[in-house]
Amino acid sequence: MRSPILDYLDSIITDTAHIDSGATADYIPELAAADPTRAAVALCTTNGTVYASGDADHQFSIQSMSKPFAYALAIEDHGLDYVLDRIGVEPSGDAFNELSLDPETGKPRNPMINAGAITTHTLIKADDGTTAVDRVLAFFADLAERPVEVDEAVAASELRTADRNLGLAYLLHGSGSLSGDPAKAVAGYIRQCAASVTVSDLALMAATLANGGVQPNTGKQLLCRPTNRHLLSVMASCGMYDAAGNWLTTVGIPAKSGVAGGIIGVLPGQVGVAVFSPRLDAHGNSARGVAMMELLSEDLGLHLMEASRPSRSSLWETQIVSLDGTEATIYVLQGDLVLSSIESLVHEILTHPPRTDLVVFDMSRVDEVLPVAKRTSSETATKLIDEGYRIVIVDPEGTIEDFTDSRGRAVERWTPEQLSKAVG
Ligand SMILES: NC(=O)CC[C@H](N)C(=O)O
């Protein structure tokens, strides 16, 4: 049976087929000559299955969609502070190739515009015999689960018309933001941009970002979580250049476009999406690609700012039982303990204090406990203990293994067997 998700992606291709506005990138001859009618879309959830439709096997150059990944490598190589000292994180409101630096700091405003991306490229560590480009390609291969190569024709074509990027690199060098040979930096950056990918590759790469930096199929932690979060934040504010505000209000997810016509989008925790269509709008973003993304966002409910249904209460049920002749209150908790769900539990306990001295928290149905929930639980435990309650935790999965009250007092623990034996 064909997946309905594929049928849906087919409809994205047909429903946007009439959009022929914009033009292929004119400043890179190889891209200017691309077939403008090609279109593709792919989606990959954090489960790792890729669904793709349209010209799904067509390879095109990653271009500026390489920028967030190169930025991640620079951060992992040097630490965030080092990189922030050299490249800002403020949206520039300028076009991607603007010859601009922050007048106050003399630094590139962010790593998504070319000024920041050329500097980023020079920060990627290269050992003897390994170039920054090799590192980036190896990273793409880990993300996409297949070897990724440079499209030499695209790289050579862009190198011949690289005046603007060379100008930028010399500007960066002059202001102290770029050490080393500016021409070499541009040549490396251009090869990074010429890496050849499909929408399926990109969806898998985006899904890794959605999955907190863990490649969904190999399970490899390719980016550490704080880097991943930082990266997505910069993509959200700067990824679509001078169209970033419009993008965030309409599509509403961290994204990055490339001048060959690709766009990737990431809904943290859920899905990576990628689209391709070579004609660009005035901002250098794929015109039909933006339309495809708008449809995906609307139909699949991707917008980050959509106030979703409040998290379910963490309280599955409250039981009053007799344990060895003593009455006990059992709170059976469920799901993820996040701010809103733990707040509703604490509210319940405060407004209807347990009527028994013995209080059991059964965590068997709990999946994840965020730090805020752990802290709040510790503080609640302290108050209950201070009021004379005896607190017991049943936590077979070790979800809150080292749990103590907020004064560091250990909390009694029972196994599920002890609980069921006691309940009888
Ligand atoms: N927006 C883009 O994709 C730009 C990338 C391209 N290689 C350039 O530097 O001009």
TrEMBL record:
Pfam families: Glutaminase (PF04960). Coiled coil: none annotated. Keywords: Acetylation, Hydrolase. It catalyses: L-glutamine + H2O = L-glutamate + NH4(+). One of its GO terms (molecular function) is glutaminase activity. InterPro entries: Beta-lactam/transpept-like, Glutaminase, STAS_dom_sf. One of its GO terms (biological process) is L-glutamine catabolic process. It is an enzyme of class 3 (hydrolase). Substrate binds at S64, N114, E158, N165, Y189, Y241, V259. Its EC number is 3.5.1.2. Homotetramer. HAMAP family: Glutaminase. Belongs to the glutaminase family. This is Glutaminase. The lineage of its organism: Bacteria, Bacillati, Actinomycetota, Actinomycetes, Mycobacteriales.
